[in-house]
Design brief:
Two copies of one chain form a homodimer.
Chain A: E1 3-4, H1 7-27, E2 33-39, H2 43-59, E3 62-68, H3 74-86, E4 92-95, H4 105-109, H5 123-131, H6 140-151, E5 160-164, H7 171-180, E6 184-188, H8 195-200, E7 204-207, E8 225-228, E9 232-233, E10 239-240, H9 245-248, E11 254-255, H10 262-284
Parallel strand pairs in A: 1-11, 2-3, 2-4, 5-6, 5-7, 7-8, 8-11
Antiparallel strand pairs in A: 9-10
Helix pairs in contact in A: 1-10, 6-7, 6-10
Chain lengths: 289, 289
């Protein structure tokens, strides 16, 4: 029986850390505020928006939703982001992706100021992750993996981590964060040969390919910690991860469930980044020591 | 007996590609020009400068050396880089490092315009490597590794590469370049446990830790390709790599020597980047199709 790495206690501990810091800023007249920029009305965007607003409210963080028409032009979207960049009452910005296919997503993400890019989507923020600079914020999902490991006291230093998936949202940045914590890190992907052998050799496995139930008993070995970053739907329409949880859980030492795993920690991480962005502004103005 | 992956034929082939392209630009009135910025008179900087100038000359590329006093201020150095950024007759810039310890090296490197940063030292260029954008140039040593593998027809796709060392000059960027070419990539370092086992499991091993003769027979296995990026001096004052070449060569399938390996390909890569920077300018002006 594996230890279940549930999000609930992590989210609770993060909340206990965040709430008094938010209160302190409010006493100084600053309400940490997250802008949510949504293009169109995709159901999963709306669903995540509700979750984010609820989490923000529970922590005392304000949210402002900017809803843009699904046929908005690049220029209008960039203008919206620019308006957010220069609005001193907004500290962080979450832009839902993917953007409509007619848009140059990279160009638009790069419009966002690094100090408000709380989900690390701009090249500047990702460059900071790669060069190990403290200037930007790492993508929240990547950082949520580290928070999960830390909360459950799972050592990273000197361990061998295998990351399956090489996206800029999770695979590559989490590899850099693990490296920073002195893990040895292997990045695997769809072209990896003998993937199951590579995965079985790891101490920590992070699955982030978005393929429902793609990894089963053959991919894991006893003693491992498994972080399942996938958020997919199975054939019955139920939420599931990249890992076949029921089959893998009896083998490994610890594993995150889906739902109730990395996803919820990610939302809290967005809030913590928004708070940090607000604290930075308060320190720069001299309001906060 | 391993195949010796010597630089000479690679440098020759690169020269055969570069020279006619330089000629074509010269016919359009554009001489590809590399600025070399050196602070102080460190013997290894001077030695590399001579090598670079000689290589540039042999390819028809012009060089301009900017020598600054070892006690130059950050402001003066930044001003020099800015002057290079805005000088249309200069296409690429090589800044020797390490800079004096009293300087903020990252801040200074970030002064260099991405389009002239032919050795990928700025956060912008490194961010481009990480996000797989074509905007910047990768660090030359990292790209030289790929050029070496390609020249000798060593397949990268689907192979497992182990990179030892996680610097921004070579370890991390070469890992990204290998990943782009669909290798599975492991990054190891000084805190890696069982390093010899990790290394032995690879198809391609890249040693980039700057520790003379640190890797011997225990670290390698038959069939492997070994790229030795180290440029060190042994106890007798002779140039040597990170790998104990004499002991390892009989075991592996192919290996780069030091000297005569990655180092010389790196210099040619700097020249090729300078040419590409000049070609880009010529295309933007409409002079080149």
């Amino acid at each position: 029986m594996a230890e279940i790495l549930a999000s609930k206690p992590v989210v609770q501990a993060m909340g206990d850390d965040i709430r008094p810091r938010v209160e302190r800023l409010k006493e100084l007249g600053i309400t940490p505020t997250l802008a949510i920029v949504r293009v169109g009305n995709r159901p999963d965007d709306l669903s995540y928006e509700r979750t984010a607003i609820k989490r923000a409210e529970s922590l005392g963080i304000a949210t402002r939703v900017f809803e843009l028409d699904e046929f908005v032009t690049e220029y209008e979207l960039e203008s919206q982001l620019h308006a957010i960049n220069v609005d001193p009452s907004i500290h962080g910005c979450l832009l839902f992706r993917p953007l409509p296919t007619f848009m140059d997503e990279k160009k638009i993400c790069d419009e966002l100021a690094i100090e408000k890019d709380v989900d690390g989507i701009s090249t500047a923020a990702l460059g900071a992750v790669f060069t190990d600079s403290s200037e930007g914020f790492a993508p929240c999902t990547a950082e949520a993996c580290i928070k999960m490991l830390d909360h459950y006291g799972i050592e990273i230093e000197g361990k061998h981590a295998v990351v399956v998936g090489r996206s800029l949202v999770i695979g590559k940045p989490v590899a850099m964060l693990l490296l920073k914590r002195n893990a040895s890190v292997t990045i695997c992907h769809s072209r990896t040969k003998d993937l199951h052998r590579m995965m079985r050799a790891a101490d920590i496995v992070i699955c982030a390919t978005g393929r429902p139930h793609a990894y089963g008993p053959v991919h894991f070995s006893p003693g491992q910690t498994v972080l399942d970053v996938g958020i997919n739907f199975d054939m019955n329409g139920n939420l599931c991860g990249d890992v076949d949880f029921d089959a893998v859980e009896p083998i490994v030492a610890s594993i995150t469930p889906v739902p109730g795993g990395i996803g919820s920690v990610t939302t809290s991480t967005t809030m913590e980044h928004t708070l940090r962005a607000a604290e930075r502004v308060a320190r720069q103005s001299g309001a906060l020591q």
